[in-house]
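Following up on my earlier message about iron/sulfur cluster. Here are the inputs again, as you asked, copied directly from the submission form:
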Amino acid sequence: MTQPRILRLGSVKDLAQFEAHLDSLGLNIPHDRELLRAPESPLAHRLLWNGLPIGNRICIQPMEGWDGTADGNPSPNTIRRWQRFGQSGAKLIWGGEAVAVCHEGRANPNQLVAAAHTKEGLALLRSTLIEEHRNTTGSTDGLVIGLQLTHSGRSCRPTTKNKAEPRIVYHHPILDRRLGLASDYPILTDSEIRNIIEAFHRAAKMAWNLGFDFVDIKHCHGYLGHEFLSARTREGRYGGNFENRTRFLREVVSGIRSVAPGLQIGVRLSAFDTVPFRPDPALSSPGKLGPGIPEINEELLPYRWGFGVDPQHPTEPDLDETVRFLRLLEELDIRLVNLTAGSPYYNPHIQRPALYPPSDGYQPPEDPLLGVARQMEITRRLKQQFPKLIFVGSAYSYLQDFLPHVAQAVLREEWTDFIGLGRMVLAYPELLWDVLEGNPMQRKHICRTFSDCTTAPRNGLPSGCYPLDDYYKDSEAGEQLKKLKSKAVAEKSMV
Ligand SMILES: Cc1cc2nc3c(=O)[nH]c(=O)nc-3n(C[C@H](O)[C@H](O)[C@H](O)COP(=O)(O)O)c2cc1C
Ligand code: SF4
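Thanks, got it. Here's what our run produced:
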C-alpha cells in the first residue's frame, strides 16, 4: 500500500472548497450553508426519551482521562474535564468517561472505579458538571447525565502502566500475539463472568443512588462487552451462537432492572469493526510510521473474531448481526444507543479518524474524511431501519470548521438524533453552543486531530488537548509528552 495524499482539512478555507474536496473523494456528507441559532437550529430541538426531556441534540461522548487517583477517585484534572463538559452546553452527557465496575477491570491504573470508596468522588463530578452547565446556559432543564460502566477485558492494565493483565473471553489469533499471550493463557470462567456481571449491578445501583439518569453498558472498542459479541469460538453459556454471545448484556440488564428499577439504560456499541491494522513495515522509516495495513491472511478466512465484520472480506462491515443486536435492544426496552466503530488500540483510523496518528498507531491508510463518512452512513442506515431507537452518532471531530454545518444538516435530515462530540470537546468545549448562541467560532481552538490526547495516555500521561488547551500545553506533562512522542515513534518504526 502506498501512502495516500491527504489534503489537510485545516487548510480548507470555505464551504465551496470543502464541497470540492468532498467531490474529489466521492463522498456524500450533508452540510448546511447557513448556520442557524437557537431555537430554530435542529441542534436546539428537545427530544423526549421515556418521558425524560433532553434539552438539545448535543451529546458529550465519554472520554477517559487516565488521570484519576490510584484508588479510582477523580483528581483535579478529572474534575476540570467534567466542568468543561458542563460548559459545553450539551444536554446529553454520555457517561463523561468509562468507569470500571471493579479494580481488576481498569484499562489503566488511573481509571475511575465505581466502588464504595469512590462514591463521593463520582458525586462531585456530577455536581461540578451540573453547576458549570447552569453557569453557562442559565438552567439545568433537560440536562441528562449518564455514567459509562465498563470492564476492560483484553485491555485491562489495572495496576501499573507497564503491566497488561488481560482478562479474555476467547483466544484471538492476532490480538493474543500482540499481547504475547500463550495458547494456554486462561480465559475468564463462567463463574468469573457472573462476578463481573454482579459488579455491573452494584455499580449501576450506586449510579442510581447518586442521581445519574442512566448507565451505559459499554459494548464497544474491544473491551469486555464488545468482545463477548464476537466470542464465536468460546464454549459454554457465554459463547458460540448469538443468544449466548448476548447473554452478558441480558444478565447485566435484568440485574440492573431489579436493583435500580428507575434507572434508564443506554448502550454504546461498535456497530462494525475491521481486522487489526499495523504500520506497513515496508514504508516505515526511523521517526516515521508507515501507513496502516490490515493484518490478515488467507488462513484466517472465514474471519470469526469480529462483530459487524464480513467473514469473507473482514475489512468490510457486515451489519446483519448489528441489526439483530439492535432488535434485541428494542426487545429489552433499551432505546438509547450510541454508535461508534472499531477500537482505538487495533484500528484507530476506523474509530477516531485523524490526520496525525497516535504514537502506537500508523499513518492514515485513507483520507480521514472517509472514516467520518463511514460512521455517518452506517448510523443513517441503522436509524432508517430502527426509527424508534434514539441514536447518538460519533466521529465528527475530524470535520473541524465544518462540523457545525454537517451537524445541523444530518439532524435535519434525520441521519442521527444526537451529534456526539469527542476530541472536539477537549479542545473547544463550547463549539456548538457558540453556534446556537450566534457567537463567532473560535478557530484557534478547533481540534486538528493531532492525537496527543491519545498519545499521552499511551505513555502513562494524563489525556488532554496538549496543543490547544493551555492547561496542558505549558505543564510538566506537556514537556514529557514532547520527549516521549518522538522516542515512541522512532522505536515503533524500527520494529
Ligand atoms: C482521549 C480519548 C478518550 C476516550 N475514552 C473513551 C471512553 O472512555 N469511552 C468510550 O466509549 N469512548 C472513548 N473515546 C472515544 C470517543 O468517545 C469518540 O468515540 C472518538 O473520539 C471519536 O469521536 P470524535 O471524532 O468526536 O473524537 C475516547 C477518545 C479519546 C480521544
Ligand atoms: S490533542 Fe487536541 S487537537 Fe489533538 S486530537 Fe486531541 S483534542 Fe484534538
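One observation from looking it over: The first strand starts at residue 47 and ends at 49. Hope that helps, and feel free to reply on this thread.
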